[in-house]
Write a structure and sequence with these properties.
Number of strands: 13
Strand order of the largest sheet: 1-2-4-3
Distance between the termini: 46 Å
Number of domains: 2
């Protein structure tokens, strides 16, 4: 791991892996050192705002090989598995479309970090056969609620936007509402399940 200063009161921790970042994030959240203003997890990094020295000392003595146990919120989303790329994902995985739905819906995912758009969570825990690359050519319009996958992640588009993830289906759940408290449905550390509906 490597620390890099970010302004007067923050530092970016570069981690060796996504698991190490998740462990660092969970460790700091559990300890809640005085003076920490914000934590912003990324795929292989953790931005710490405030109390950087205390966080560094905490993490130097921590086991960051896996996240510490703790309570996490669980969210279940109903999904209509009717996505444009369902057959493509099945073909590349060497299984039937029904098997893709079963694999995707049986897994339990963890929100590793958020980004790309307000409310978009990068969910880890995708079964190995479904770990596939982005589309060669991104779409200019992906509807809100689209459930997709790319690489090691699955996720849900919170609003209409361009995107290159392979689409498996859609949900009617609201992922981001600026008037809600909290506005985003997903937060890092949450567990997510997808339930197949007709």
């Amino acid at each position: 791991m490597r620390w890099r200063r970010c302004g007067e009161d923050a530092a970016l921790l570069d981690c060796d892996s996504l698991e190490q970042m998740r462990a660092a994030h969970a460790t700091v959240q559990a300890a809640r050192p005085d003076g920490v203003v914000d934590l912003v997890p990324g795929a292989r990094s953790l931005l710490v705002v405030g109390a950087v020295a205390a966080v560094r000392a905490l993490l130097e003595d921590a086991d960051l090989s896996h996240p510490p146990p703790g309570e996490s919120r669980e969210v279940t989303l109903d999904v209509h598995y009717d996505g444009e790329d369902l057959s493509l994902v099945a073909s590349d995985a060497g299984v039937s479309p029904d098997a893709v739905v079963e694999l995707h819906a049986e897994a339990v995912y963890t929100v590793a970090f958020t980004g790309f758009a307000p409310g978009f969570g990068y969910l880890t825990g995708l079964p190995e056969p479904l770990r596939q690359p982005r589309l060669e050519s991104p779409r200019t319009r992906v509807p809100a609620g689209s459930v997709g996958l790319a690489g090691e992640f699955t996720g849900v588009y919170p609003r209409e936007s361009p995107g290159g993830w392979r689409l498996l289906g859609h949900t009617t759940a609201t992922l981001f509402d600026p008037h809600a408290d909290p506005p985003a449905l997903f937060a890092p550390g949450d567990r997510v399940r997808f339930r197949s509906v007709r």
